[in-house]
Amino acid sequence: VSLVESGGGEVQSGESLRLSCVISGVTLENSVIAWFRRAPGQEAGGISCISTADGSTYYADSVKGRLAISVNDAEKKLYLQMNNLKPEDTAVYYCNLRPPLNSWGQGTQVTVTS
Fold it and tell me: What is the DSSP letter of 44?
């Protein structure tokens, strides 16, 4: 199993980023795939997920209306469009299934300055 996140960077408040995750070694059929983030000094938590079975999505209240999750089943790629970023979005972002696999990627750092 391989999870490779990319797309992070340092941006100013209000700007946008698009995160990508390439997933290999596991079937995504009828799965729930999620984005997690770990802010400095905090534990990782899920912020958004999508079902490959029916396309339904979930967003944590803290990101609702600003983030959009999507998946390309054929390419096994997960995306997270992040708009109107805020300093509190600063974190390392990870993708994984729900429930999470034992394997995690390196994550991608998102830093938002005010």
Answer: -
